[in-house]
Amino acid sequence: MIEEQDPKRLAQMALVVLLIIGCIALLLPFIGAVLFAFVIWMCSWRFYAEKLLPRLAGRDTLGASLMTLGLVLVMLLPMLFLAGSLASGANQLIDFLKDYLEQGLPSHAPSWLSGLPVVGSEIDASWHRVARSRAELTALLGQLVAPARQFALVLGGIVANGLLQLALVLFVVFFLYRDGTAISQALYVGARKLGGELGEDMLDKARGTVVGVMLGIVGTAAAQGTVAMIGFLIAGVPTAMLLGFATFFLSMIPIGPPLIWGGAAAWLYNDGQTGWAIFMVLYGLLVISSIDNFVKPILIARGAGLSILLIALGVLGGVLVFGFIGIFLGPVLLALGDMLLQRWLREELDT
């Protein structure tokens, strides 16, 4: 009888394994968006369940719709607006290069270029040669057109993919809100069956770490966007509020804010405001970008209850291994590992 059951049990196990592999293969292209939807859901679930849902008399479909609409207004519409601004900036750059192509370069290079040590004389000589020859200028600009077009195509693809991923995140998070109570109960039941009290503690630790990381990222982004907007207003940069908002969004990536304040400094210099351009560069380096280096680890460490070292290693390692979603996965994995290690050490000491 036991021999007859063994092949049947093996077949059942193989079927379960194949089913799991098939589900993972189907979800793999969307795993980043699904995980990010879970991050948003976990961070905002308490507000939704304790504040919004009771006021709607428990109508979860309406509540999920309102929460998703709020996320659309906060996340998707600004991204569309920023994409339109990038397209407008690309058109302005094309018009700027077209003027040089039609009118030619000035006869003398800017003093800050020709005055550079070691390479200044070479730049000045090349500038004079190109300025005297329309053919060389056309050839030079022609060499820049292909990389610029390729960069624009890549940037457009990134923006389009980001918008699609964000739309998928909003689609998934709607169902997480609507069925959140059942999903939450299922997660705790599964954690209890797999690890008992330890499983529940690990689930709570993972949620607390994710919320702490999100608060640190959003808090740092808000601080960077605010101080950036103040700097833009002081320097007289147009559309300072829009640029501050762009800094808020782009602070999620390491090189995001320098693209904004660096572009503002370039605009100020091109407008003849050299002093304000220098101020913008110094303000960007010393104030805007320094917030990310000092404030973010402190906020995340306080919110997640982890040391700054674990947070820094988790964020950096997570980004290298998992991409953007690794900002959340890295600290969570280290937090769970630290929790298991501390519990094991306590048990060893108790015995």
TrEMBL record:
It is a multi-pass membrane protein. InterPro entries: AI-2E-like. Keywords: Cell membrane, Membrane, Transmembrane, Transmembrane helix, Transport. The chain crosses the membrane at residues 12-42, 62-83, 151-177, 210-235, 242-269, 275-295, 307-336. It comes from the Bacteria. It comes from Dechloromonas hankyongensis. Belongs to the autoinducer-2 exporter (AI-2E) (TC 2.A.86) family. This is AI-2E family transporter.
